[in-house]
Structures are given as C-alpha cells and as structure tokens.
Specification:
The chain is α+β, with helices and mostly antiparallel strands. The chain starts with 10 loop residues before the first helix and ends with a helix. Strand 1 and strand 2 form a beta hairpin. The chain has a domain of 64 residues. A three-stranded mixed β-sheet has the order 2-1-3. This is Auxin-induced protein X10A. Belongs to the ARG7 family. It comes from Hibiscus syriacus.
Length: 95
C-alpha cells in the first residue's frame, strides 16, 4: 500500500491546464474555466481569487466589449494572447 505526496508545480504549468476534451473535464471547486487566444482558443482553469484583481477585471471588461454575453466558445472568452494571459495571471497569483 502506498500514498501520494502532493506535487509542487510551477505556477505557469499549473495555470496552463489546457485540455483537448474540455467537455468531460470537471472544473475544481473555487476555479472557473476561460478560453484565451487570438486565433486558436485554449482552455484555462483559474482560481476565482483572480476576479478581485483590477488587471483581471480589465480583461473581463475587454471581453464584455468584444463579445457581450455571446461568447463564441460557449464559455467566457478572453480576447488577448495566450502569453499575455499567462504572464498577467501568474503575476497576480504571486502577489
């Protein structure tokens, strides 16, 4: 009989939880899924604690201006590059 030790994962790797079969994936409690990207949209699961940060709220405002409530992926879509999103969210999580 064995046990698992918790994994310590780089923040960028844990944030970049991109899944191809997103329909079958359960979003963990305290998190939400967003689609990010300019051409090809990728799915990220992020903690809800990011919602309180002004920088993330600016991204949400941009999403509202571009998509309103009609998001093409069927979920919240953030209109920025994947790299910009990762850099921003990682800096917010470390603060």
């Amino acid at each position: 009989m064995g046990f698992r030790l918790p994994r310590i994962v780089n923040a960028k790797l844990s944030l970049k939880w991109t899944l191809s079969s997103s329909e079958t994936t359960v979003v963990p409690k305290g998190h939400f899924a967003v689609y990010v990207g300019e051409d090809e949209k990728k799915r990220f699961v992020v903690p809800i604690s990011l919602l309180k940060h002004p920088s993330f709220q600016n991204l949400l405002s941009e999403a509202e201006e571009e998509f309103g409530f009609n998001h093409p992926m069927g979920a919240l879509t953030i209109p920025c590059s994947e790299e910009t999103f990762i850099d921003l969210t990682c800096s917010l999580q470390s603060s």
